Amino acid sequence: MNFQMLQFPIVQACTRRSNRVARYLLTLATIVHFSCSATAADAKIVEVIGKTAKASVTSGTLKVGDGVAILSIQSNSIEEIVATGHVLDTGDGSILVTIDQARDKVVPGQQMRTLPTTSSANEDSSLSKSGGSTERNQVPQNRMTSPGWLGVSIRPVSELLASEMKLPRPVGALLVGIYPGSPADKAGFRRGDIVLKINDNWIQNVDQLSPALAKFKASQQITVVLMRNGEGLQTQISLAVRPAASYFVQSVREKAMQGEAWAQVELASLYQMGEGVDRNEEQSIVWAHRAAIQNDVKAQDILGYAYSKGAGVKKDDNLSRAWLLKAAEQGMPNSQVQLADMYRRGLGGVQDFSAAFSWYRKAAEQGNALGQYWLGFMYLKGEGIEQSATKSAEWFLQAASQGCAVAQREVGHLFEKGEGVPRDLEKAIDYYRHAAAQNLPSAMVDLGRVYRSAKGELKNVTEAVKLFRSAAEQGDAMAQVQMGLAYLDGAGVEQDELQAAQYFQKAGDQGCPEGFNYLGWMAMQGPKSQRNEEMAVKWYQLAANQGFAKSQVELGNRYLFGEGVQKDYAKALLWYRKAADQGLAIAQNNIGFMFQQGYGVQVDYEKALDWYRRAAKQGCAQAQNNLGVLYLNGLGVERNRAEAISWYLRASSQGSRDAKQNLRALGVEP
């Protein structure tokens, strides 16, 4: 194979721009986390027998041979692949799937999703089947029956290596292993080469090689740009069909026994997935450990993940962090994100937002979509860095533009609220649509919520209910709440209070206190003789115990007025304070009212004034009216008629009848 010598500027074309957004535009859509990939169909595991799983299809259509991923949904809505496989048979609304590879245990209740490419035939897959090293949970974008195979094992480019190779910064994917007889072997690729470009796709980091290759079929010719010993090379190469599993076992076993780290990692992956060998997590860990102590970054990443999940080893957050740190320091983006997660969540007893921010940034600046998402999240919340909606939007937009569904949803929030970006409801809807199209339930809820509440042409209650129902059927608690509200109000469906209550109950049983709150509200409706005040207290108590501020206020009200419970001012004040501490304005107003009236406490107008002010600043009309009363009568403050009128007017503008009446009594027309 002939190599064409290239001048160094071809590398500079993708690296010399320092602006993050400009750099990012060069690699748009080349790295995609699984939760960000388009989906054709979805199903839910109902039964697992050995390496076969039965699933019920929830949306779309699957056919025999389709590649699928089995997902575990994390508490932060991030999806994590636990296994991949292919459809063995189809039936009436159900399918049988052969589990080809599994990282964790497959159990009923897990979600199943079609892969944009067949994972079992994908070179450099997220499970490192043929020697690739890609971001965990990442899949190629384009579905193909026979994706091309290059036959390499890859690692990230370290800062030291980038310097030695005369690169201005770490870019590309480092070749650490070449499979014998593979297209890469026949083309004369060498260990130590750095892949910089596949056709028109610049490879900014190790995670981007697999998506770039996945766009091409077997036998298709591609142009590859390499860096070798500081010189740029360009060559043509024809991809091949990925060989059978036995080829990989034969190719790497001897090299692994001889101590070659990359081969040990591949053998570890084969044992982990049960590909060509019986699945054996313990053997997988043995081989990964042999490579890790040789400082192989992928092996260190594998061990970090294994110790975090207890996969083949006893779960140990400290060991997980230690191995992830080794890999992260060598520039492994996935390890950097996992390490940052541990610091942010305080796993292993060490919570350090500053360290988390630093590692997310390192991954984000390499183009890692999850790193960009979490960096945006930390800017949004002000964790480890000064809060900045503008910078949050910048990073969310970068991740969203790569197809990251959770980031697309966050961008939708920002455009809907006008935080960090100009308020634009149509753009918000567009981002929600992109995320919802990837079957992200929370995005479906957001999109449905906007459709339901929008004005004019944007309003679409029927579509809103369709979205709520789809998300609710996937078990999303907030979608179940929205379906409950739809049935309660008869919005987009025939009014049915029993159906509403059932949806609220489902949501509450999943730990969503808002479901219990609405059940409490339903119990308090109608004439007093028809109310079930005791049942309302039960529901409000369940929600209040979970910290739901609105239910804490309602529970306080029940104790204040003795509805469904014996009147108890002390308990009323207790629950109001819990809600007030969360910043709920009406709770702050109610505490002020108790101090003004002396309910369970000594009358204290100054304290009443203080609580009313807190609530009034948040726009609480009741508190604004009550402030007017105190100023007009000089209670806890010097009498000031003008100030009283000012507060009455603010409350009146929000429709407060009491404020309007008070203004008229002073001869002022509201």
TrEMBL record:
Q: Where is the signal peptide?
A: 1-40
Name of the protein this chain belongs to = SEL1-like repeat protein
Q: Which PANTHER family match?
A: ERAD-ASSOCIATED E3 UBIQUITIN-PROTEIN LIGASE COMPONENT HRD3, SEL-1-LIKE PROTEIN
For bias type Polar residues, the affected ranges are 111-145
Q: Which Pfam families match?
A: PDZ_2, Sel1
Under the heading InterPro entries, the entry gives: PDZ (IPR001478), PDZ_sf (IPR036034), Sel1-like (IPR006597), Sel1_AlgK (IPR050767), TPR-like_helical_dom_sf (IPR011990)
Species annotation = Telmatocola sphagniphila
Q: What are the alphabetically sorted keywords of the record?
A: Signal
Q: Tell me the segments the record calls region Disordered.
A: 107-147
Domain of life, per UniProt, equals Bacteria
Keyword Signal listed? The answer is: yes
